[in-house]
Amino acid sequence: MLQDKTLKCKDCGIEFVFTVREQEFYKEKGFDNEPNRCPDCRRANKLRRQENSNTYHR
Ligand SMILES: [Zn+2]
Q1: How far does residue 45's CA lie from ligand 1's centre (Å)?
Q2: Domain-wise residue ranges, the chain
Q3: CA 35, 41, 42 angle in degrees (round to 5)?
Q4: Which residues are close to ligand 1, an ion, with C-beta < 5 A?
Q5: What is the pLDDT of residues 16-53, one digit of tens each?
Q6: If you measure from the C-alpha of residue 26 to the centroid of ligand 1, how many angstroms do you get, rounded to a whole number?
């Protein structure tokens, strides 16, 4: 059985919960690794990437 896991963000160092729901989502997507970052940092990273690609295409 899957259980919620507490992981530590490698960017900001806070602990965050990797929920069963997210674990199932990861499995569904075929990711066998766990997230290294908390949701906030993941979102920030994604935004940064989008900004970068926007500038890149201009
Ligand atoms: Zn973080």
Answers
A1: 10
A2: 5-57
A3: 50
A4: 9, 11-12, 38, 41
A5: 999 999 999 999 999 988 999 999 999 999 999 998 88
A6: 18
Tell me, in angstroms, the distance from the centre of ligand 1 to residue 17's CA.
12
The CA 23 to ligand 1 mean position distance, Å, reads 18
Sign of the torsion formed by the C-alpha atoms of 6, 9, 12 and 17: negative
SS (H, E, C) 38-55: CHHHHHHHHHHHHHHHHH
Dihedral sign from CA coordinates of 2, 32, 25, 45? positive
Token couple for 56: 């890149």
